[in-house]
């Protein structure tokens, strides 16, 4: 039997899952694990599909486990836990596929060179995503590897949705809106017909509200516009990212506060958003609790988050020329009825009527009959990568 591995690499972590095809051909995970703390005190943990612990290990800082050793530890551990299955390929999450890739890519030297060229477009993520690909290629050149992109799903957007009003040669050099969270949106689009019947052929706004947050306008299940742009910094305020910002604020920070590019980057990516406004936390659960206890800036941070979601939903509704439904997904979208209720009340002008009881109970349908619908659909980016990897191999 065949198995597929999915790797999702960050700056100091490598999350992985192992998938197998079931009787009906649908893929399901039989191992989930992660190696965290690379560069300090790495910890490895892995569980089976039912949550039972399969492996656990820690290293001290003096062990000096680097990315190369860590990646190979995960790969070798995975190979020892295939239970007789054959590892057909690794699918990797890669944040940027530029304009070249609207779907997954089988890794070879030419593809890898193109992906390297996108590092300046996503300097905080792309190098970390590519590192394990290169390491595995060095040690196991025979093992097929596939890249799945966060940008791919948005390549269906019309040029006007991707263009900045800069001199046009910047657009030709790649300075344009790409949109991210594409694997999450692709997964949601793939289940719309089953989970939100009718929306797969309608005008939908999908709200991926997690630590990172964005909205995608979908017509007939295809992306026509999104709130993230050139980077994953644009659009909605997020846990620690500011979202859309008048670029003149950056000049101010550089001229008046004398911040250099790295300091501005740190401020906008890591100290802003819900954390920056509240001065308390980037975690919605903590903010809800504090706001309930009277913490004014926790309330303000939440209100700003909701205000900006509704504002962008209005803009995306205009872009689509109407709205048939809203889908909530990711950590906040799936688990926080209060945020969903506040957003839906803010969108009543579009004709939707919230079903307060259904919303408190977690849906999946959150609205009463008549008017646009709203749904909760749990996302699954890893499953989407596994599907793309399996499909890529099947097509060869
Ligand atoms: P990521 O995968 O990008 O780290 P998630 O999709 O897990 O992010 O979302 C994390 C966010 O979801 C955090 O703000 C967290 O507080 C929020 N969240 C998770 N569960 C709940 C809950 N029960 N109520 C409110 N917010 C929640």
UniProtKB/TrEMBL annotation:
Keywords: ATP-binding, Cytoplasm, Kinase, Magnesium, Metal-binding, Nucleotide-binding, Transferase
GO biological process, one term: acetate metabolic process
Reactions accelerated catalytically: acetate + ATP = acetyl phosphate + ADP
Keyword Metal-binding carried by entry: yes
Cofactor: Mg(2+); Mn(2+)
Cited Gene3D superfamilies: 3.30.420.40
Protein name as catalogued: Acetate kinase
Species: Alsobacter sp. KACC 23698
Family designation: Belongs to the acetokinase family.
Residues at the site labelled Transition state stabilizer: 181, 241
Sites where the protein binds Mg(2+): 8, 381
Subcellular location, record wording: Cytoplasm
Pfam families (alphabetical): Acetate_kinase (PF00871)
Co-factor: note: Mg(2+). Can also accept Mn(2+).
Any one cellular-component term (Gene Ontology): cytosol
Function: Catalyzes the formation of acetyl phosphate from acetate and ATP. Can also catalyze the reverse reaction.
Record-listed substrate binding positions: 93
This protein's pathway: Metabolic intermediate biosynthesis; acetyl-CoA biosynthesis; acetyl-CoA from acetate: step 1/2
